[in-house]
Amino acid sequence: MLRTSVSARRLDILEWLKDPVAHFPPQRHGDPVEDGVTADAVARRLGVPRPVAATHLGLLVDVGLLRTRTIRRRTYYRRDEVRIAEVARMFEKGW
User: Fold this and answer.
1) What is d(CA 22, CA 5) in angstroms, rounded to the nearest whole number?
2) Helix (H) or strand (E) holding 89
3) Structure pTM?
4) Choosing a second label site near 71 at 20 to 30 A (CA), which of 11, 27, 35, 77?
């Protein structure tokens, strides 16, 4: 999943979500660190339509690198640091 032609975008998303306050504008609802950011915010940052950003985010959720939280009918995305560390260890072992 991370080795596709669009993997750079997914890696950018993961990098930005390390410090969402530095990479995304303030949100009306939800704390960017505790709750995450919306697909709309990621789409604006990537410069793509929301459905494109939602696809990238959905793939990252599916492999367990992101967690979601719903607040006021909106989905917020944040990193799953435990899972990211597990995946990093797998790659270090030559997986």
Assistant:
1) 26
2) helix 81-92
3) 0.86
4) 11
Quick one: tokens of 47?
A: 């410069």
Q: Where are the alpha helices (DSSP H) in 2-80?
A: 7-16, 20-23, 39-46, 50-62
Beta bridge partners of 57: none
Instruction: Give the list of residues 6+ apart from residue 46 with CB closer than 8 angstroms, or none.
Output: 9, 12, 13, 52, 53, 56
Residue with tokens 């995305």: 77
